[in-house]
Amino acid sequence: MMRVSQHISFLFAFLILLSFESGYGQLSSGILNKKDPLLTVNKSGPYLGIQRGKYNSIEFGYEVQKKEVKLLKPNTIAFNIGFDYNLNTNIMGFSLGVWDKPSRIDFTYGASLITKTNFDDFRVGVSPMIGYKISIAHLQLGYNIIANTGNFENTNTLFISIRAVLINHRNYNWRKKKKKE
User: Fold this and answer.
1) What does DSSP say about strands 76-86 and 56-69: parallel, antiparallel, or unpaired?
2) With contact defined as beta carbons under 8 Å apart, do 60 and 66 qualify?
3) Cα–Cα–Cα angle for 97, 105, 43, nearest 5°?
4) Which residues pair with 163 in a beta bridge?
5) What pLDDT score does 166 carry?
6) DSSP state at residue 136
7) Where are the beta strands (DSSP E) in the chain?
8) With 0-12 CB in 10 A as exposed, 13-18 as middle and 19+ as buried, what is 107?
9) Which of 53, 102, 120, 160 is least enclosed, having the fewest CB within 10 Å?
10) End-to-end CA distance of the chain
């Protein structure tokens, strides 16, 4: 009885290893490798926005986007750097972020490294975000995870922001075809 269970477990392990080997063979042969898109567009420009949570802030910064132009699942990735300022509580923030939109009609997923200051103390943190982008408007919902290093608490933890990205530079990059010799 013990012999049969050992044979079954050996056969099961062998089949798992065989499936990994065949999967690796398909990946290395180029069957599942994605081709570069025919056209990519690099766009950049300033953005203006409003951040609402427990406290209201205005945002301004600069964003660079790289968008693939293709029929199925065009990917967009963006990097941004910005400032936010709360006029009522005199708190300024700095953010360095990235977001990704995996297809044409999909959410944006991103995160930012943030720092906040009241000009006496400062706090540092991370802000994961999910959003939706239509044309120049980008609506994001995020949560600031901030370390307790400063003596001020007047910052948003849960927030919603809307940004308008004003694209003023576009660069079109066409994929070059390889010549057959």
Assistant:
1) antiparallel
2) no
3) 45
4) 49, 138
5) 95
6) T
7) 39-52, 56-69, 76-86, 91-101, 108-117, 122-134, 137-143, 145-146, 158-165, 169-174
8) middle
9) 120
10) 64
Which among 83, 78, 109, 81 is positioned nearest to 96, based on CA atoms?
81
Q: In this structure, what DSSP letter does residue 11 have?
A: H
| Rounded Cα distance, 82 and 96, in Å | 7
Q: Which two tokens stand for residue 82?
A: 């910005």
Tokens of 177: 């075809």
> Tell me, what's the pLDDT at 82?
96
Q: How far apart (Å, rounded) are the C-alpha atoms in residues 13 and 7?
A: 10
Contact between residue 64 and residue 90 where contact means Cβ atoms under 8 Å apart: no
Largest CA distance in the chain: 77
Alpha helices in 29-160 (DSSP H): none
Whole-number pLDDT of residue 110: 95
* pLDDT of 1: 47
Tokens of 81: 């750097």
- The residue ranges of the chain whose pLDDT is under 50 are 1-2, 28-29, 31
